[in-house]
Amino acid sequence: MTDPRNIFPDPKFLPRVKSMLKLDFYRLFRSPIFYIMLAIAAIIPAMVLAMGGLENPNSDSPAFKVDNAWELISTKGSAFAVNGFAGFATIDMVFIFAGILMSIFVAHDYSSGFIKNIFTVHSKKEDYAISKTAIGVFSGICMIGTYFLGTVLAGAIMGKSFDVSAGGLIFCLLSKMFMMIVFCSLYLAIAVFFKDKLWMTIIATMLLGMMFYPVAIFANLESTILTFIMSILGSLMLGAVFFFVTHLFLRKRDLA
């Protein structure tokens, strides 16, 4: 039988990560902002559909039109070429919300001095990065879930079409769930860099999140299993890069 110590040179690695995860999830589930973000994600589809019915002051046609409820999840083909603003008002907004949630958590760790206590008592910096990334990915996936439920409910109430390729929709959602790894790893690096400066972290999160928007729209309603596989591989590679950057910031920058 393989000795676990050959896989994890530090025998305390798994217990430390488990302890850090337990602490972070406890804090997450007791944090009102987590449930507020879930509620916002659920409400956004109805808001987008309502905006779609508003008149365009420059013409007699609506500002934008959403005929199919699944257009609130993503679009067919490039989001930059479909339905104007509707191409951006999709589930990809959830990536930004996940970043804001992580920003709040990390900024609180620094402003309260809790991060010093974490590293002094039992955890190492890589444990912190792993745990915070996991919290971000979990929260983001939960937001995808509530956004999806909000889309179904809003679309049904407003009588929108639900005609779509089931495979394309499933692979689209699964791909976006894995893409949370990329975005949350990026947002964590930003949050650690700015430390307790929450407002700067949020601004940087939104700006860089928009810059990485093409990564999110790679998965759309025409997604296939190949899209899903490429999303997994790309997410793991980019996530590893941003994880290294986060660890570098934690090592080189003062925790104060």
Characterize the structure shown.
- The protein is mainly α and 256 residues long.
- It has one domain (31-252).
- The chain is 69% helix and 0% strand.
- The protein has helices at residues 4-7, 13-29, 32-52, 93-111, 114-121, 125-157, 166-194, 198-211, 213-216, 225-252.
- Helix 3 (32-52) packs antiparallel against helix 4 (93-111), helix 6 packs across helix 7 and helix 7 (166-194) packs parallel to helix 10 (225-252).
- The radius of gyration is 20 Å and the shape is elongated.
- It starts with a helix and ends with a helix.
- Mean pLDDT is 84; it is low at 1-7 and 79-86.
Q: Could you write a compact summary of the structure shown?
A:
It contains ten helices and no strands. By secondary structure, the chain is mainly alpha-helical.
What is the strand and helix layout of this fold?
Blueprint: H1 4-7, H2 13-29, H3 32-52, H4 93-111, H5 114-121, H6 125-157, H7 166-194, H8 198-211, H9 213-216, H10 225-252
Helix pairs in contact: 2-6, 3-4, 3-6, 4-6, 4-7, 4-8, 6-7, 6-10, 7-8, 7-10
- What is the distance, rounded to the nearest whole angstrom, between the alpha carbons of the first and last residues? 45 Å
DSSP E strands, number? 0
Structural class: mainly alpha
Order of helices and strands: HHHHHHHHHH
Question: What form results from the Cα inertia axes?
Answer: elongated
Round the Cα radius of gyration to an integer and report it.
20 Å
Q: Can you give the helix content as a percent range?
A: 55-70%
How many separate structural domains? 1
Averaged pLDDT: 84
Number of helices: 10
The portion of residues forming beta strands comes to under 5%
